[in-house]
Amino acid sequence: MIDSTKPIDGATPLDDISGLKLSKYKVYTLKEIYEKEAQNIANATLKYLAAPPSKKEAPFSYVWMLDLHEEMFGDVWEWAGKLRKVELSIGIKAYLVGMELKKLCDDIEYWEKHKTYDVFELAARIHHRAVQIHPFQNGNGRWSRMLANIYLRQHAHMPVRWQEDLLASENPKRSEYIEALKKADNGDFKALIEMHKVTY
Ligand SMILES: Nc1ncnc2c1ncn2[C@@H]1O[C@H](COP(=O)(O)OP(=O)(O)O)[C@@H](O)[C@H]1O
Ligand SMILES: [Mg+2]
Predict the structure, then answer these.
(1) DSSP class of residue 105?
(2) Distance, CA of 52 to CA of 48 (rounded, Å)
(3) How many CA atoms lie within 13 A of 154 on its CB side?
(4) Over the stretch 56-86, which tens digit does the pLDDT of each residue have?
(5) Which of 19, 81, 122, 194 could form a disulfide with 117 if both were Cys (CB 3.0 to 4.6 A apart)?
(6) Is residue 58 within 6 Å of ligand 1 at its C-beta?
(7) What are the tens digits of pLDDT across the range 135-152?
(8) pTM
(9) Ligand 1 centre from 114 Cα, in Å?
């Protein structure tokens, strides 16, 4: 269970609630906001993960990647699907975000065409690059993991079950996950790739 009073390790603190689309007449706890987000994300999960999505449904194009974030967070946040304009502690400089995301889409196309990596490594690399760029104000982790899961599902594998587990800071799996991301930052993708093989 998420403790709504404690900030979550490594996750964006929700001190900026200015983009919140929910009622202005109610003060929401972090837990309530996470629950609204989870309901919103559940729709995207159903759309993309219930059955293998086609290339047309999930093209891994630039516009689609932004749309996916909007589909996951658009009921709750004004800035859903919009590139961030602010600097964050994680991620590249805000002015580079659009260009780097486009580059990632081009790289995915290249990797697929040239069969550079197997499905698990490709999913891991999409995940890692997406979260490294950190295109949005928040929700980058959940969006990146969703991207990886959609990629796996599109390529005859079941999605990884991380959505629920990775928010709580007490969860030992979370530190393992952050460690795997940090290793990938240094070019060692082994641990992150292994995590993409643990499916339902
Ligand atoms: N050093 C790090 N500490 C915490 N999270 C990290 C770190 N490096 C990368 N991340 C990624 O950033 C995500 C948190 O970004 P955030 O935009 O708050 O996403 P979300 O709101 O979905 O959790 C983590 O889930 C993880 O994928
Ligand atoms: Mg966050």
Answers:
(1) H
(2) 7
(3) 20
(4) 999 999 999 999 999 999 999 999 999 999 9
(5) 122
(6) no
(7) 999 999 999 999 999 999
(8) 0.91
(9) 30
